[in-house]
Design goal:
Length: about 425
């Protein structure tokens, strides 16, 4: 297929990222993806896999793992979701996004295999199959695979993880009813196999028991086996010292904003050590953390005024963003917030988590997706949370509205949805 044909093919498939299934486990299955992989000769078995699930921090942790393994000289494949500007961002090899030509080719290969095997695949199943096939075609040394939803029945769980990584458990992709934390933990634990090393970032003892009870070959746990020993704000990021089972690191710059990135760094380093079954050289750790980039996560795209993009879209992510704005960017500046959200979350709770009342002005907009909440719904949620709000439907007009009122020394934050952040990121050079 040509690239445009591949996009048209995907657009014709059922896409649960557009039709949300929050809390809906019934009917989920990776059986279609398993059948697809079998029809292709099981390309996913051609390389070891690091499988990553969790509520928040997956993208940043994967980027750090990718940087560490790449700096060690490996050819690393990464499959992540969602994307900011282009669908091809989800599939990377050697830190580079898949080319349009290669994307069209693997989507075409998946479509033909599905047709020959009489498989009706969803959008995500097709994309997952394409990523796993592409990694085999590129002879990667390792693939880092991010779970799409939960874990046990996710399409990505067709892989057998050498290392299963859990960042944390929080309120997302769920109705929030009943004992939701236990239910989510049980589903995320489904990526663990008897051969997997589990690297566990969650520390709640009740949830730890669930993950360990899944029966991994070994467990490496935050707080017991790895942790952040020291974390200080530094120019361009955080200066951290980390303890891991084999060595760790001292006084290393993590070139990302937010204290939570120090926690992600400790998790990533523990994963890399487990993969090599050895400590990493100090110069590798220093270079990997100093050069890591995570688009859309507390990313500075403009100065004077300072414009920061963050994809925080649930309550835990919102709280982390609010804390980082206060510590890393907030002092002596007026704050403006461009906010657009998708359905499936509690917009008032997210607004409280963002501490919207601390902003000089919130500019509510409509996220450019079928699931986008209207600017009026976002405005009303922000007002309920104590903010002063203007509603501007179009994302581009919303950022212009904020920039038009901000002075050079002020701060403009864009948050609430990947689609909003992606749209602003695409035009940041025009500010």
């Amino acid at each position: 297929m040509e690239f445009d044909e591949a996009l048209d093919h995907l657009d014709a498939l059922i896409n649960y990222e557009v039709r949300p299934r929050a809390g809906a486990i019934e009917g989920l299955s990776f059986a279609p993806t398993a059948a697809l992989m079998a029809a292709l000769g099981n390309p996913e078995s051609a390389y070891p896999v690091i499988h990553v699930t969790g509520t928040n921090g997956k993208g940043s942790t994967i980027r750090m793992i990718e940087s560490l393994l790449t700096t060690m000289g490996l050819n690393v494949g990464s499959y992540t979701s969602p994307h900011l500007e282009s669908l091809t961002e989800r599939i990377r090899v050697g830190g580079e996004v898949i080319s349009d030509d290669d994307f069209g080719q693997v989507i075409g290969d998946i479509a033909r295999a599905a047709e020959a095997s009489d498989l009706e695949l969803t959008w995500f199943e097709t994309l997952t199959g394409a990523a796993l096939l592409h990694f085999a075609n590129e002879a990667v040394d390792v693939a880092i695979i991010e779970v799409g939803m939960l874990g046990r029945y996710d399409a990505t769980n067709v892989v057998d993880a050498r290392i299963a990584v859990v960042t944390n458990v929080g309120l997302d992709h769920t109705t929030g009813e009943g004992d939701w934390r236990t239910a989510i933990a049980d589903e995320k634990a489904g990526i663990i196999t008897p051969e997997s090393v589990l690297v566990l970032g969650e520390t709640d003892p009740a949830l730890v028991r669930i993950f360990v009870g899944e029966g991994p070959a070994r467990t490496v746990q935050r707080g017991e086996d790895f942790e952040v020993v020291e974390d200080r704000l530094a120019v361009g990021g955080r200066l951290v010292s980390l303890r891991t089972p084999r060595a760790g690191a001292e006084d290393v710059l993590v070139a990302l904003h937010g204290a939570h990135q120090s926690e992600n760094a400790s998790l990533a380093l523990a994963v890399a050590e487990e993969f090599f079954d050895a400590p990493l050289p100090d110069d590798v750790i220093t270079e990997a953390f100093d050069t890591v980039e995570v688009p859309g996560r507390l990313e500075i795209v403009h100065r004077s005024p300072l414009v920061v993009l963050d994809t925080a879209h649930n309550v835990p992510g919102a709280e982390v963003l609010a804390a980082t704005v206060a510590t890393d960017f907030g002092e002596g500046r007026r704050r403006f917030l461009v906010l657009g959200m998708q359905d499936g979350r509690d917009p008032v709770a997210v607004c409280h988590g963002l501490q919207v009342a601390d902003y000089h002005l919130v500019v509510a907009c409509t996220a450019p997706t079928a699931r986008g909440l209207t600017a009026e719904v976002v405005r009303d949620a922000a007002i309920t949370a104590g903010a002063t709000v203007d509603a501007v439907h179009d994302v581009e007009a919303a950022i212009d509205h904020a920039l038009g009122q901000a002075d050079d020394h002020d701060l403009v934050v864009v948050a609430g949805s990947n689609t909003v952040v992606g749209r602003v990121r695409a035009i940041a050079d025009e500010f």
